[in-house]
Design brief:
It is a single chain. The protein is built from five helices and seven strands; from the N terminus they run βββαββαβααβα. With 118 residues, the chain is an alpha/beta fold. It has a single domain, classed as Transcription Regulator spoIIAA. The strands form two sheets. The chain has a five-stranded mixed sheet. Strands 3-5 form a two-stranded parallel sheet. A hairpin with a 2-residue loop joins β1 and β2.
Length: 118
């Protein structure tokens, strides 16, 4: 039996909105599963447009950041777009320290992120 999804996925026109069920994304197994689930969404899309909301997330491990980079690369290979939104201030600090805030398009909220898609 497949493990229960760690994600809430909504289709909003051509944009796929993803939210996390977990407040803490720290465990290797969960991160692997999240990566696989999002990877499958990208594989099934012709021109993937993903918005990942971190609304309820309080902690992210470095492995989770690595998975985000992989997801970003996959989307770019397909000519798609990725937006991140609602990132907690403490988590955002990590994005700044690791310079990932330059790699990802990060928005204050879902509405701003949705408007940024071309």
């Amino acid at each position: 039996m497949a493990p229960q999804s760690r994600l809430v996925v909504h289709e909003d026109g051509e944009i796929t909105k993803i939210e996390f069920l977990d407040r803490n994304i720290l465990e290797e197994a969960s991160i692997q599963q999240i990566g696989d689930e999002i990877g499958a969404l990208i594989d099934n899309a012709t021109n993937p447009k993903l918005l990942i909301s971190f609304e309820n997330v309080e902690h992210l491990s470095s492995a989770a950041l690595g998975t985000l980079i992989t997801i970003n690369n996959k989307i770019r290979q397909k000519g798609g777009q990725l937006r991140l939104a609602n990132i907690d201030k403490q988590i955002y600090e990590v994005f700044v320290i690791t310079k990932l805030n330059k790699l990802f398009q990060i928005h204050a909220n879902n509405e701003k992120a949705l408007k940024s898609f071309k």
